[in-house]
């Protein structure tokens, strides 16, 4: 029997995530759960998240498309952590065995939070771990879920966070839930950067003049415009105009969502691009400055140092 490492003890400053996999799990769902954490580590340049894979019995599992995964051990043997992701997909009702439900109830005492991904909420509810809680599930199963578990407040939403119980309805919504967790730990700017890494965000409103962006997505839409215009930065008034807002309204949206104004966020977007260019290319500092909208390399270097605590050349040597 494999020994499950207690990474929470070994790396106490990192958030520990354990993924409980079942036969026929979704590759897409697994990637959308783990890749945002890997992206957050990469962009934060530290190990902010660690993860492990387990199964109910410790045996290897295959995804719905045949990808084999060797878990590190049994769920019952795991010492616990910050978050357990419960990830069945197809055939989920057959996984609700006495052994599985007992293992989940035991895990609820060792993990700070539990999340049902895709159809994972069904297993959490069957184990009695969603009683009196709000939860969602894949939309194909919403009605049956509500009928089977009347003690659960079933919500038709993309993802739900109810204290230490989390749930989402599918693969794309898994990415959105994980971005929310990244934002909790690393702040909204890191979450925006991770979303951009996977091109998850709003399309440029100029591509569709009839587009009306809902208020909760205006900041992402604005940041998408910023990323497309780092070499020749747009005035805030122009950003607002393209989004069909007044400048004051856009600034209010940023203050509410980010705790910062759009100018400050735009500067961070440009300097983040400068850092990537410094670390990943051989462009001169002057060329990097030009590519992120600075006419003066010295001015860019001063802003770069203020943002990251070191000049571009130091970042290049470190990379």
From TrEMBL:
<dbReference type="InterPro" id="IPR002818">
    <property type="entry name" value="DJ-1/PfpI"/>
</dbReference>
<keyword id="KW-0804">Transcription</keyword>
<dbReference type="InterPro" id="IPR018060">
    <property type="entry name" value="HTH_AraC"/>
</dbReference>
<keyword id="KW-0805">Transcription regulation</keyword>
<feature type="domain" description="HTH araC/xylS-type">
    <location>
        <begin position="220"/>
        <end position="318"/>
    </location>
</feature>
<dbReference type="Pfam" id="PF01965">
    <property type="entry name" value="DJ-1_PfpI"/>
</dbReference>
<protein>
    <submittedName>
        <fullName>Transcriptional regulator, AraC family with amidase-like domain protein</fullName>
    </submittedName>
</protein>
<dbReference type="GO" id="GO:0043565">
    <property type="term" value="F:sequence-specific DNA binding"/>
</dbReference>
<dbReference type="Pfam" id="PF12833">
    <property type="entry name" value="HTH_18"/>
</dbReference>
<dbReference type="InterPro" id="IPR052158">
    <property type="entry name" value="INH-QAR"/>
</dbReference>
<dbReference type="GO" id="GO:0003700">
    <property type="term" value="F:DNA-binding transcription factor activity"/>
</dbReference>
<dbReference type="InterPro" id="IPR009057">
    <property type="entry name" value="Homeodomain-like_sf"/>
</dbReference>
<dbReference type="InterPro" id="IPR029062">
    <property type="entry name" value="Class_I_gatase-like"/>
</dbReference>
